Amino acid sequence: MPTGAGPRRVQEIFTAALDLLTEHGYDGLTIEAIAQRAGVHKTTLYRWWSSKDELLAAAVTGSALLEFPVADTGSLRGDLLAVATRLSRLLTRPATAAVLAAVPGRPLLAEATNAFFTGRLTRDHPVFTRAVERGELAADSDADLVVDLLAGALWFHLLLCGGSADRRYLARLVDSVLTGVSARRA
Amino acid sequence: MPTGAGPRRVQEIFTAALDLLTEHGYDGLTIEAIAQRAGVHKTTLYRWWSSKDELLAAAVTGSALLEFPVADTGSLRGDLLAVATRLSRLLTRPATAAVLAAVPGRPLLAEATNAFFTGRLTRDHPVFTRAVERGELAADSDADLVVDLLAGALWFHLLLCGGSADRRYLARLVDSVLTGVSARRA
Questions:
Q1: Tens digits of per-residue pLDDT, B17-56?
Q2: Of A100, A137, A156, the CB nearest to B155
Q3: A32's torsion region: left (phi>0), alpha (psi -120 to 50) or beta?
Q4: Does residue A153 contact residue B160 with C-beta atoms inside 8 Å?
Q5: How many Å apart are CA A10 and CA B12, to the nearest integer?
Q6: Which of A113, A172, A182 lies closest to B145 in CB terms?
Q7: Given pLDDT bands bounded at 50, 70 and 90, which one contains residue A186?
Q8: Are B156 and A151 inside 8 Å of each other by CB?
Q9: Superfamily of domain A68-180
Q10: A185: which chain B residues are within 8 Å (Cβ-Cβ)?
């Protein structure tokens, strides 16, 4: 966060940047337009971020728009269902599509997107430590692999195969991650 | 496939298109350069594909470079491991990165990429019907969900989190898909 800026003001700038990116795409986005919508002077923005990519990267990792609370429902199944539900909403938001479309060939944005997902996963780790404490997960289980499965399946299904994720799909996904697809598990 | 063109000649054109895309990126790719490398006249290419995007889309869905054989190892675990191994190689190839980077904002390429993955999954369906016949999968299990999990986890892990997928990761991934991550499965 830039020094001397209130967190609320910074959030207004991030919101303006993501909204304008969604409306006009990367090529149509300018620092001037972000300044105008956020009600700050463009020289102020240039003092904090030296380029459009730097500002966008900061918005991707820091915007409250892309934030969601860590799940704590009392069971691993409930928590994973909550994570999957929120993630499916995030992945289908126009702002997310606009960010992902802008990533290829822009290292700062690619790095910010990676940092965003890594950060999300780190914040979700209590889901797994609580599950180990309740005996729902083995102590040596790999939380990152669970996230690869859950987030990856949603990503592939929603963004690559053009599918949709209703409650039934999300429940089947979480149950498959928990108990596997093999007929021999019973 | 264009009428009047031998399949070998068409493959040479697709190879030239994907190689040049990998070397120069989308903006640096021209129909002229593809024609020159494939040893055909550029008017021939324009007769078959009206634009660079149309030719690239045809290459994505039709090139033998992006093809791999359907697994048939005798067990579901072996087959899934083979699919995961080949998919992880495909996803980390420079040509794949070049295609995926060119997709955003280009509907023909997005459609071709979706068709490529959907087509791959359709060709892998014998893996699941054989597993049902061997009693390794329930008859009502959802092959598409298995593919979402396997392909999605690899996609997320390799392309979004910048991870690598060695034999140990691939084995853990397949075992998690088969038997789940829950400690209560035992």
A1: 999 999 998 989 999 999 999 999 999 999 999 999 999 9
A2: A156
A3: alpha
A4: no
A5: 53
A6: A172
A7: very low
A8: yes
A9: Tetracycline Repressor, domain 2 (1.10.357.10)
A10: 178-180, 185
